[in-house]
Structures are given as structure tokens and as C-alpha cells.
Amino acid sequence: MRIAFEFHGSFYEKYPKAHVVKSDVLINSTGYGSMGRVDVYEQDALAIADSHISIIHLKEGYDPYFIAYFLRSPFGKIQFEQWWNGSSGQIELQPTDLGKFVVPDNSEKGVPVHKQQEIASKITQKTNQAHQATGVAKETLMGAREVFKKAVYGT
Fold first, then answer.
1. Continuous segment of H or E residues that includes residue 107
2. Contact, 68 vs 40, CB < 8 A?
3. Rounded Cα gap, residues 26 and 2, in angstroms
4. N or C: which end of the chain has fewer CB within 10 A?
5. Distance (Å, rounded) from C-alpha 73 to C-alpha 147?
């Protein structure tokens, strides 16, 4: 995903619709290989997104990490596939079509914000554990390769 980048001064002021603020959900909205990549802007720095990034300023009562995880899920991916248009590698998602996406209701009958935060926290924890396990597995594999080299080549 092309990440928002930091800008200051007149260029920044010239493009207010491209302003990104902390907790905005960023969506890569162009390209067959990158369409639908989703992340949360976590910085306090002023930033601006390029034209390939859609910026979602969430309403109160929605957790940005929950929404990002939801959009990365099969439910989100189905909607990206439904609403993109274009052909080949030139596909894009129009802002009006992004507005048609369905996300869980944040009412007590749906998924209230406290429950969204709980779910997002659990997913983040499991994701971090998976990344740690991947790191351990890579280290173990590298060690096994060294043992193999020593056994085969005697060095």
C-alpha cells in the first residue's frame, strides 16, 4: 500500500480533501494487485494522501482497527470485488461506490464500539503472535540450514 506521506506548508494547505489525520482508515483504491489494501493512520504528524488512496474519516462510535480488520476480511473483500470498475491493472474504486460498502451497525443490537475494540484487540494480539511465530520459524530454519551445511560440507 502506498502510505500517506508527511507534508507541510502551502502544498498541504492547497489540498484539504487529501488531509489524513490520526485514526483515519486508508484504502488503496486503484490497481488490480493493490486494490483493497487497508490500514489505519497512526501518526500525529500532518499528512496528505495521493490520489490512489481513499481516506475514511469514521463517525463516532466506530473503532478504526475494527473497520480495517472488517474490510480485510472476506466480507470486505467481497465488497471490493463487487464495486471496483475498469479493466486489467487499471481498476479503481470510486468514492461513491466506497460509500455503498456495508459495515456492521454500531448500535447495541449490532457491534457497539466497546465490542469493536475488544474484537480488534484480540485480532491484533493474534496477529502479533503470528508475526512472532514467523520470526522464530525463520530463525529455526536458518539454524537448520547451518547444521545441514556443516553435516554435508564438514565446515
1. none
2. yes
3. 10
4. C
5. 40
Residue 76 to residue 89: CA distance in whole angstroms: 20
**Strands of 53-56's sheet, edge to edge?**
38-40, 25-28, 53-56
Q: Can you tell me whether residue 19 is helix, strand or coil?
A: strand
C-alpha cell at 122: 484480540
- Strands of the chain (E only): list them: 5-6, 19-20, 25-28, 38-40, 47-48, 53-56
The pair phi, psi for residue 18, each rounded to 5°, is -95, 5
pTM of the model: 0.78
Q: Which residue has the cell 560440507?
A: 153
At residue 25, what is the residue type? V
Count of Cβ atoms closer than 10 Å to residue 139 Cβ: 10
**pLDDT (tens place) for every residue of the chain, 155 residues total:** 555 555 556 777 888 888 999 999 999 988 777 878 999 999 998 888 988 899 999 999 999 999 999 999 999 999 988 888 887 667 888 888 888 999 999 999 999 999 999 999 999 999 999 989 998 999 999 999 999 999 898 86
